[in-house]
Amino acid sequence: MMGVSVHGVSLLGPGLSNWAEFHEIVAGRRPYHQGQETRIPIPDVLPPTERRRSSAAVRCAVSAALEALRQGGMDGRDVATVFATSDGDGAITHQICDGLSRSEREVSPTAFHNSVCNAPAGYWCIATQATTSSTTICAYDLSFAGGLLEAAALATVESRPVLLVASDLPSPFPLHAVRPVRHALAAAVLLSPSSGSRALMRWVIRLDRSLPVTPPPSFVAETLLANPIARCLPLWSALARNAEEEVVMEYVDGSVVAVACRPQG
Questions:
Q1: pLDDT band at 169 (very low <50, low <70, confident <90, very high)
Q2: CA-based angle 25:225:152, to the nearest 5?
Q3: Of the candidates 49, 67, 85, which has an alpha carbon nearest to the alpha carbon of residue 12?
Q4: What number is the average pLDDT over the span 81-103?
Q5: How many CB atoms lie within 10 A of CB 83?
Q6: Is residue 221 scored above 80 in pLDDT?
Q7: pLDDT tens column, 131-152
Q8: Quick one: how far is CA 242 from the chain centroid?
Q9: How far out from the chain centre does Cα 233 lie?
Q10: Does pLDDT of 107 surpass 70?
Q11: What 3 state SS string does the chain have?
């Protein structure tokens, strides 16, 4: 069992440009418009060279990370990071495979540079000049839950703030046929072992078994749920409602990750 406090949170997805919009939708003050594409901004923290080199997957992850960090009022140089993704960058994977399938067998050095799953972590460290520890994990559909456990453990063991960033984007055909993610989605949360005056909520996280998984918010469309990172949405909904409840997420080998949400203040 681990206890961590939430100091910043973000969400970027179809019809969801930031955390404030999601908060308004959960509160019922604005409708959620389905069928929109995710608008991925170019993060202003990236130097010009990195902006040109960055892929959509990198920009999506870094944008979400930046919102959560700024909301928490912390310096990126002092924050460890955990990046989570189920598929990595499918568009880059497709580009490389397409190049290798041709007679010239040419692969762009920039594409190769962006192909590794920890590319977003590298761009983030360049943007923030961070030299703290950074971990990137892939656990297919369970990547968000795995990333949350990793981030909470790191915050607890090292007694320092940790930024969890989870993101996945659609892949082009033919990869899309076997992994039909419909929209880009990224979520980030800034965790700390201590509460402090800026804490939004306290989470007590544990592994358990035989507990029912918490369903997604009622307004969430099936196309959005096709993105594995959408498994964070019940927890994000509890944050937006400042609700005292337990959120349960599926994990490996029949286990679950249970998060007891305790509002602060």
A1: very high
A2: 85
A3: 67
A4: 91
A5: 29
A6: no
A7: 999 999 999 999 999 999 999 9
A8: 20
A9: 11
A10: yes
A11: CEEEEEEEEEEEECCECCHHHHHHHHCCCCCCCCCCCCCCCCCCCCCHHHHHHCCHHHHHHHHHHHHHHHHHCCCHHHCEEEEECCCCCHHHHHHHHHHHHCCCCCCCHHHHHHCCCCHHHHHHHHHHCCCCCEEEECCHHHHHHHHHHHHHHHHHHHCCCEEEEEEECCCCCCHHHHCCCCCCEEEEEEEECCCCCCCCEEEEEEEEECCCCCCCCCCCCHHHHCCHHHHHHHHHHHHHHCCCEEEEEECHHHEEEEEEEEECC
**pLDDT digit string, tens, across residues 21-61:** 999 999 999 998 877 889 999 999 999 999 999 999 999 99
Query: Which pTM value belongs to this model?
Result: 0.95
pLDDT for 265 equals 65
Lookup: tokens for 243: 């609700």
CB 236 within 8 A of CB 27: no
In the chain, the N- to C-terminal Cα span, in Å, equals: 22
Count of all residues that appear for the chain in the document: 265
Confidence of residue 155 (pLDDT cuts 50, 70, 90): very high
Tokens of 8: 């910043």
